[in-house]
Design brief:
This protein is α/β, with parallel strands linked by helices. The chain has a single domain, classed as TIM Barrel, CATH 3.20.20. The chain has 16 helices and nine strands. Strands 1, 2, 3, 4, 5 and 6 form a six-stranded parallel beta sheet that branches. Strands 7-8-9 form a three-stranded parallel beta sheet. Helix 11 links the parallel strand 7 and strand 8. The longest helix has 27 residues. The protein is globular, with a radius of gyration of 21 Å.
Length: 440
């Protein structure tokens, strides 16, 4: 099984230039070590920090993307041995640290490598992920599964952490609307239309254009998600797919873990015209904390690293030698400095283009955080520090509450209302897609 970490290592600026992720030189990204304090010199005024904590307890704070289910499976052993009621340093989340970070609701991501669509095993692997997600939810008295916006508020008021499920990649339904409906029954409340690679009915941001957006079948999938009451998630999709989805959807869309292309021109980020469209659509873009998608200097650094790696392949034969050489290059060419303030720059830009009502949080924690995430936001305890920085910049209490969760709740209620309306007049989607490479 290819890990999420390895996929991140393969994705970079070359994908935005039209190269498929699969054509990039394979190998896990090796980041220079983070500041061991996790603060990287950043401090927050204690009064602002306490104010932020108080607001997040009220919100509730909703994070729309955490990859703990995949991390449990990739561990390789029986993940049921973990007691998430205690701090688990080798995992990206647990109850004590989520409590410290004031998390009120968490979407757990169901993720399967998009290359599994070529072996028609995506649905099978997705079932393993759902099994892990449902186990972790049911393993703790502090957790309770939520299926609606009302559930989120009820569970939060009861002092528990509301848990929802998001499906990260439309390849997992294997072109079957029946599978999509079964995902909904299991608790999925959003589906990211693609992951790193194109699928039969939609283009990804990090692959060559194949459909120029959504196919007709893809548009039908969007409409079926509207009918079900499942968010259409536009993280990972191409800009043309974003535009097609927004033009077709009858309900608010979300980006579960994306940032502003104008700040960091990574193909995974949202361009301004799409951000502008959120105002009329009612959707929400949930800002994430991964350094690749935050730093304005990321594309240039990625391009230099890729060029160095290509050069190494011209005169070195051993994979081990190449690995050591690129690590030496990275020591001499460290990743550009980035911090909490850079995340806030994305929030500021989105606020300027889309408005304060269309911003949320989708951290995208997928490992232990040091090296992959923005310094200062390495783990689930650190959300208050981000909101303290917003308060420092003059954001009001109401602004903080909107970004932390009320924007998502508003969009979710609009999505649920539209689904109830559509279910009265539309039948379930019956058309099955055509699986490429399937036997006749």
């Amino acid at each position: 099984m290819i890990t999420r970490r390895k996929f991140l290592g393969q994705a970079g600026v070359l994908a935005g230039a039209g190269l498929a992720v699969g054509s990039l030189l394979a190998g896990e990204r090796r980041w220079p070590a983070s500041d061991p304090t996790g603060l990287s010199g950043q401090t927050a005024d204690e009064a602002l920090l306490e104010r932020a904590r108080g607001l997040l307890e009220r919100a509730p704070l909703i994070d729309t993307h955490n990859d703990l289910p995949s991390m449990l499976i990739e561990d390789g052993g029986d993940y049921r041995r973990f007691d998430l009621g205690k701090v688990q340093p080798t995992l990206c989340a647990d109850v004590p640290r989520m409590r410290e970070g004031r998390v009120g609701a968490q979407y757990w991501s169901v993720w399967v490598a998009s290359e599994t669509q070529r072996t028609h095993t995506s649905l099978h692997e997705a079932m393993r992920e759902f099994d892990a997600a449902l186990w972790l939810i049911r393993s703790q008295a502090a957790f309770e599964q939520a299926r609606t916006a009302d559930d989120i508020e009820r569970i939060h008021k009861a002092g528990r952490i509301a848990c929802l499920i998001g499906v990260e990649g439309g390849h997992m339904i294997e072109d079957s609307p029946a599978a999509l409906r079964m995902f909904y029954e299991l608790g999925a409340r959003y589906m990211t239309l693609t992951h790193w690679d194109n699928i039969n009915w939609a283009d990804a941001a990090t692959d060559r254009p194949e459909h120029n957006g959504l196919t007709q079948f893809g548009k039908q999938v969007v409409q079926e998600m509207n009918r079900l009451g499942m968010f259409v998630d536009l993280s990972h999709v191409s800009a043309e797919t974003m535009r097609d989805a927004v033009s077709v959807t009858k309900a608010p869309v979300i980006f579960s873990h994306s940032n502003a292309f104008a700040i960091d021109p990574h193909p995974r980020n949202a361009p301004d015209d799409v951000l502008e469209a959120l105002k009329s659509n009612g959707g929400v873009i949930h800002v994430n904390f991964i350094r690749d998608f935050i730093s304005p200097k990321d594309p240039e650094w990625q391009a230099r690293r890729s060029a160095a790696l290509r050069e190494l392949h011209t005169h070195l034969e051993s994979d081990e030698t190449i690995k050591k050489s690129i690590e030496e290059w990275e020591k001499k060419n460290p990743y550009p400095a980035v911090g909490i303030a850079d995340v806030v720059e994305h929030i500021e830009h989105i606020r300027k283009v889309a408005g304060i009502e269309h911003i949320g949080i989708g951290s995208d924690f997928y490992d232990t955080g040091k090296g992959s995430m923005v310094p200062g936001l390495e783990n689930v305890t650190r959300y208050p520090y981000l909101f303290a920085e917003l308060l420092k910049r003059g954001y009001s209490d109401e602004d903080v509450l909107k970004i932390a969760g009320s924007n998502h709740l508003r969009a979710m209620r609009e999505m649920e209302s539209k689904a109830a309306e559509l279910q009265k007049k539309e039948k379930p989607m019956a058309v099955e897609g055509i699986k490429k490479g399937a036997a006749n």
